[in-house]
Recover the amino acids of this structure.
């Protein structure tokens, strides 16, 4: 008796066999993203307020805004038009120069 395996069935079988080999770090990465999302949601200073704090501190247009280490990391320009990197405290809105 000859068995014929359909390509779709073979692919499904191969994927099912490989599933346990998916790296554990994928679920760890998802957990970090979930934790980060909760931290951003819980922050008293949201993205809009962080940009407003940077502008109120005398910096120009914001070119980048990221959430890192429980604070906002912002790239903007100073009064002379130079690019600067700033931190905005997520609890207080305090702006601190981080470097270029």
């Amino acid at each position: 008796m000859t068995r014929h395996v359909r390509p779709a069935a073979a692919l499904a079988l191969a994927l099912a066999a490989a599933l346990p080999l998916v790296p554990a770090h994928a679920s760890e990465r998802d957990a970090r993203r979930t934790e980060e999302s909760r931290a951003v949601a819980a922050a008293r200073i949201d993205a809009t307020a962080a940009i407003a704090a940077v502008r109120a501190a005398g910096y120009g247009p914001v070119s980048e805004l990221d959430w890192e280490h429980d604070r906002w990391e912002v790239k903007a320009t100073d009064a002379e038009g130079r690019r600067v990197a700033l931190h905005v405290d997520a609890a207080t809105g305090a702006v601190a120069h981080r470097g270029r």
Notes: The first helix runs from residue 7 to 18. The domain at 44-100 is CATH 3.10.450 (Nuclear Transport Factor 2; Chain: A,). The chain has a mean pLDDT of 79. The CA atoms of residues 65 and 74 lie 5 Å apart.
